[in-house]
Every structure is written in structure tokens, then in C-alpha cells.
Amino acid sequence: MLSELGFPMKFVNWVMQCLYSVSYSILINGCPTKPIPAKKGLRQGDPISPYLFALSMEYLSRCLAALAEDTNFSYHPRCKKLDLTHMMFADDLLMFSRADEGAVKALFDAFTKFSLASGLEANLHKSEVYLAGVSDHVASNIVSLIGVPQGSFPFRYCGVPLTTRKLSFTDCKPLIDRTVARIKRWTSQFLSYAGRLQLVKYVLFGIQLYWCQIFVMPKKVMKEIQRICRCFLWSGADADSRKASISWEQLCFPKSCGGWNLKDLTVWNKAAVLKHCWALALKQDRLWVRWIHAYYIQHRDFWTMPIPNGLTWSLRKIWHNREVFLQANGVDQFVQAGKFRFQKMYKFLHPVGAQVGWKRLICNSHASPKSTFIVWLAVQNRLATKDRLIRWHLSIDGTSGLCQLENESLEHLFFSCSYSQEIWNQVLLSLGVNRTVLPWQEEVQIAVKKSRSKQKQACKYSIAFIESVYCIWLQRNAKVFRDHVDPIETVVSNIMFNVECRYQ
Ligand SMILES: [Zn+2]
Predict the structure, then answer these.
(1) What start-end ranges are recorded for coiled-coil regions in this protein (predicted)?
(2) Cβ atoms of 373 and 239 closer than 8 Å
């Protein structure tokens, strides 16, 4: 095969040496046996393996391309204009032909020629034949001719389901299962809010990158995945066991607008669909774009032509979405240097709320992510303090556990409670700030002002504020759940230690 492709004999001999000089040896009771020569195949992990694979696939492509000259062969009716006989990705191979015995046989003979030359065979148990528009009689003849079982849509290619109709909830079930599996690992139970947020971001990112870019996803599936992620973020489990403190919608806002910049999957998916739209209008040099142009657009203008008949569900969706560009006064603002600006489209489709006054505290935070998350909840008064729990009709004792004197609320906890006031007071003294402790809102204002500054002292101050709120919240929880509180000196020295560590 190599010599037929025109490689010099010397090179061919080198490659053959790699193939013939392989031998294996087995360790028995710690002693290697006599080497066993291998008849064919490379050493495991030999770096030339992918190159040889690519070369043999080139040979396969040529065998199949030669079919064009074969009078027995006829193209699949939807592949003739592009001379398409096959598509492959790694070791996944799709072959197309007209569903008549002569054409299928010619296709198979071409593949057999490749098999004999290369020694690579198709696993018939893992292969399937898909037939459309033929009678049962013809179908069964073809199936028995090639000895491959008949399959049905949707089937999986490169790990994703292929189908002409709308993806159903069941088709997407593997995606949902994978999402659940990822966040259900036992280690994730012990994550802080910030850790869970990171995991949710990572899970969502994977879906955005793969499924959302390829398919028009059903809204129901996107909603379900967001629901799983939301429950996990707030409760660490996949069941609706606890109320969300902040809406998912707000979590999808940029940080400056009080969110965490999560991506709204439905909107992201829409942006991906619009990217396909743009690719079609631009006549991008991609196989699928060429195919649609050859069979459906046929030299008409994509923007103004009527929606063609006989489109698959997802193509129809792409066509329908042209309207978005028309409303946005054209495509140009979403294109830069010939590339589609995905983020810009996402922003256009996903309006966000106003900026929040405390954005600097969260955005520029040098404090640890887990403390920043707690402060983010605190500035919005969404920590589960006892006054809020009572408002949710939980019958609990509302007294602050830390001082046993007053009722627990956000304002009491930060920092009018005698215990936390003393902590914040000592932290302030360690920072060289000599003033009385102020009410919560005023303390937040000061911290926000400090976080705008780049000065060393100001930076330390805002870290100290965030770490103090977090440590006090931890002490409050330890009191509620374990009836234990650390001495003030220990807490203060922990805070100051964290500040020094984070400041670096
Ligand atoms: Zn108290």
C-alpha cells in the first residue's frame, strides 16, 4: 500500500522494520520469559501509529473515490452533487450509496479491497446499515447481501445522536445522566459553595462546548440540567431539598451585576444556532454548508429566500432564527476579522440587570473564593440567619447563639453581637484602624470603598473584611450545629493569618 502511494522503498523498509521487530515478553514470578515475536502490529504507544493510521485511511478514501468510475455504483441521491461516498472521524466511518444491490455491493467491494490491503477489518457486530425510501423486500435483500444488521435512527456518531427529527428528552438522557454523575461523586458533598459553583461552571462549560454547539437542544433538557445544577449548588444534592437563596437568572449575570457569570444554556444554544445561520449565509467552506447550498439554497440569497420544504427539524430552526439578525440590523456587528463573535451574540441575546454598588468587593476580591461567596450572600441579606428562617415558618428559637442576648439577624451578626463585634474590633486594631464598629450597611460601604483602591493597606482591609464575615459565619454555624465556639483570640489570629496568606 505504501509503495502504491508512492513512498520510497527505503521509507517503506523502515516502517516494516517497526512492524516486524516487535516482540513481547511476560513476567512470570518476577522473571521475564523468552521473547514472543509478534507477527504484525506496532509496539504499544508507538508514536508512528497515528501516522500509519492516517495513511491507511487515505488509501481507503482513494478506494472509495474510485467508485465514481464504477458503472455498478450509484451515489446516494442526496450525495451526488458533492461526490460524497463517505465521511470519517478517527475510526468511525460512514459510507453512503443508493439503496440498490449493485451499488451497495460495489461499495462493499471497495471496502474489502482496502481491508485486504491493510489488514484492517470492520467489526460487523458494531456496524449497522440504515435504509430509507425502499420496500421491505429490497431492504431485507440488502441486509442479507452484506450481512450487517439493519439499524434505526437516531444512531450515535462520535458520541452524539444523529437524527432528522427533533431531539427528544430520551435522546438527551445520556447528557443528563452524565451531568448528574459528575456532581454526584462522593467528593462533591464536602465542597464549599465556591467549590460547588466551580464544579457547576465546569459541568455547564462542557455542555456548552459540545452539545450546545452542535445541536438545537430542546428547552426542556436545558431546563432540567439547570435545575440539577441549581439544586446541587444550594444543597449539595440533586434533589430539591432547599430553597435557592439567589435565582439562577441572577447567577447568570456578570459579576458586576451581582451574578457569577454562569452561562444560560438556552441562550447559549440560541447563539450557537445563530452562528450556524451566519455560516450558511457566508457560504463557509464546510461540508455541511456546501451540502445545504447544493441541495436547498441553490444560488439564492439565504436571508430572503423562502424556507425550503423537506428540511430536518434542526435546519428549520436555523432558518427560522434568521429573523434575529434582521431585528439586530444585520450580521456585521457580530463578526470580527471573519470570525463570529460568540460572546457578543450571547450578550445581545442575554440582557442583564443594572450594575450593583458592591461589585468591586466581589470582582476584585483577593480573599478566598469560599469567603467571597458568603459575603456575596451577606450583602444581599440572603444568609440563612434565624430571622429569615422564622420568616420561612420554621419553628426555631430565634436567639443569637453567640451571645444568647438578642435575636439573630444579619445586622446583629455583623457586627452588633458582642462576640462578633469584639472580633471585628480586634481585626481593625491589627490593621491599624482605630475606630468604633459601625452598623452593617456602613461597614459594607467602607469595605467597598477600600476595595476600589489598589493600595496595600486598602487591599488588606477588604480581604480582612471578607475573611472576618466568613469566620464569624463559620462560628455561628458551629454554635448552631455543634454547640461549639472558638475563643475570640483564635478566630482573630486565624483571620489575620488568612489575610497575610491571601495578600501575597
Ligand atoms: Zn449575638
Answers:
(1) none
(2) no
